[in-house]
Amino acid sequence: MTDSKEVINIKDEGEIRKRDDVIGWDDLFMGIAFMAGTRSKDPCTQVGACIVDENKRIVSIGYNGMPEGCNDDVFPWGKDPNNPLKNKHTFVCHAELNAILNRHGADIKGSTIYVSLFPCNQCAKLIIQSGLKEIVYYCDKHAKKPSTIASKMMLDAASIKYRVYVPEKEVILVDLAKKVVNLLTKSSDKDHDTT
Ligand SMILES: [Zn+2]
After folding, report:
1. Is residue 146 within 8 Å of 64, Cβ to Cβ?
2. Which of 24, 91, 110, 131 has its CA 20 to 30 A from that of 53?
3. CA distance linking residue 113 with residue 162, whole number of Å
4. pTM, rounded to two decimals
5. How far, in Å, from the CA of 148 to the mean position of ligand 1?
6. How many Å apart are CA 33 and CA 53, to the nearest integer?
7. Could you count the other beta carbons within 10 Å of the beta carbon of residue 61?
8. Over 80: is that where the pLDDT of 18 sits?
């Protein structure tokens, strides 16, 4: 703490300055959502979510997967339209649900959820009832499906904001072997397909 009555100038000419090229909040939290998604065993779609409170503190993460105790070598990963018991949608917990349930009792009212795929109608209900105020999403590839249309109907009615993630740094390279992190901006078109 600096005494306001006695400001001491500790800076010298030519002193090393702080880094300005740091990762932005949205890049950090969406990056963490993506990292969480890499834990998913789903062979088709890996979705990650990261809940952040109003003070930019990470409250929880989640990814899509089978419920606790439901062996993911036994339960189905296919999408058999004729047999719900051989269809993953009957069983899988979505990333948003897991992130909301993983919060260890923390109050998430007013928080923001970063998620790699636009929430479905079931997750929209959870988001609304949990008091989340904002969704930042990466991909909306199911925008024309009734589940996404219903999701937006409910979110709009509940005045929950949603916005597409716009990366500041388009490549966040974490090379664990070399202990190097690189933040890169590319001019190439973004590929928004996460599957
Ligand atoms: Zn969902």
Report:
1. no
2. 91
3. 9
4. 0.87
5. 9
6. 15
7. 22
8. yes
